[in-house]
Amino acid sequence: MQDRSPLTRQNLLATHGRTIHWVICVRCSVATEHLLLVYLLPTIFIAIYFGSTVAVLTSLASGLAAAYFLLPPQFSFYVADSLHIAELGFTTLLAVIAGKVVGVIHQDVRVGRDD
User: Fold this and answer.
1) Predicted TM-score (pTM) of this structure
2) Is residue 3 part of a domain?
3) For 17-21, 40-44, 76-80, which range has the lowest pLDDT when averaged over its residues?
């Protein structure tokens, strides 16, 4: 079976970088609080292509990126509002769980094809 995507840091960073770029561009027209779930997308894609371990690391990096780019005060890792801390924690936890589930399902499908 041919591997669809080589495991490289460039691919990982490119996927996350594209998401960050898109969020920064769209942030002007949409309230930033509603963009937290966008950070689930790179976790899902990374879980499909690279597995659940890398997806968990991506979800943690996504949580840090969301805190830095989206939550006030922007461009700082400090989050002033306790509600935003709870939202960020929930979103990061959701990304970790989604990454693990998608990674396991994708691995099962891959093993099933090899049989």
Assistant:
1) 0.63
2) no
3) 17-21
